[in-house]
Write a structure and sequence with these properties.
Nucleotidyltransferase, domain 5; 9 helices; about 40% helix; about 20% strand; alpha/beta; 6-stranded mixed sheet
């Protein structure tokens, strides 16, 4: 089985929203989780103090131990070390980055962008799972409140049951499964991937570019058949997609 961990990045004030996932085979889950904790421990992060916020975040909040106790160079090295797990555990990346403020039909509606991002990501998860001949379980950070979390479960259940306009989603198990991100290495890695990729697409690359070499070439891609879903990274509007792919080569070519 494939397990796909999802998280969101929203750059407020820019009109960009991203949702990215880390797809990992179930046999790699425990080794990846163990390696994740070992890297944090080597960096001095106090994992065994339940009163501390030690979650790995692209934009950690005030009070987060990593933000408050590691300087810029230490944090950069920690994040680079963590991102090496993507290749070490043979993951594939999947995502959707939307400049929703520049999509006229969406009327700069961030909630529309969130719904559409799930459709685009689920289509690409389905395509990847089919090519791997495996079912997929999708785990995501919970929404900001319980009502929104339940709504997202309902929406994705209907999406899987009915399929999208372009694909039946028969490889995905039920719906998105919400979880507490601080308890899952996969969601925390997805947070980094979403933050880095969204910043790269949004041309806010000063910080994100330090990590792009560890993501480039890891996005799912299949040469056949000739359909949009064979590309693991969906970017809209399409003119921004072509510029980004030409300049930053997310598929390694």
């Amino acid at each position: 089985m494939l397990v796909v961990f999802l998280d969101e990045s929203h750059i407020r004030g820019t009109g960009y929203l991203g949702r990215c996932g880390v797809a990992v085979e179930d046999g790699q889950l425990l080794p990846m989780e163990t390696a994740f904790r070992e890297i944090l421990s080597r960096a001095g992060v106090p994992l065994n103090d339940p009163g501390l916020d030690v979650e790995v975040k692209w934009s950690p909040r005030h009070g987060n131990w990593i933000r408050e106790n590691l300087d810029a160079n230490q944090r950069r090295q920690l994040y680079r070390d963590l991102l090496t797990l993507l290749a070490a555990h043979d993951t594939r990346l999947i995502g959707a980055i939307f400049h929703y403020a520049n999509i006229a039909a969406w009327s700069a509606d961030v909630n529309r962008a969130r719904r559409e991002s799930y459709i685009h990501v689920f289509e690409r998860i389905e395509f990847h799972a089919q090519r791997q001949s495996q079912p997929a379980l999708v785990v995501a950070d919970h929404e900001d409140d319980p009502i929104s979390t339940r709504q997202r479960v309902t929406e994705t259940f209907e999406l899987v049951r009915s399929g999208s306009e372009y694909l039946q989603l028969g490889s995905i198990y039920k719906h998105v499964w919400p979880a507490e991100s601080e308890r899952h290495a996969g969601i925390q890695l997805a947070d980094l991937v979403a933050g880095i990729t969204t910043c790269m697409v949004a041309n806010q690359q000063n910080y994100a570019s330090q990590y792009w070499d560890l993501l480039r070439g890891r996005f799912a891609y299949y040469r056949e058949p000739d359909v949009p879903q064979r590309f693991g990274l969906s970017i809209l509007p399409s003119n921004e997609r072509e510029v980004f792919i030409g300049n930053h080569h997310p598929y390694g070519w």
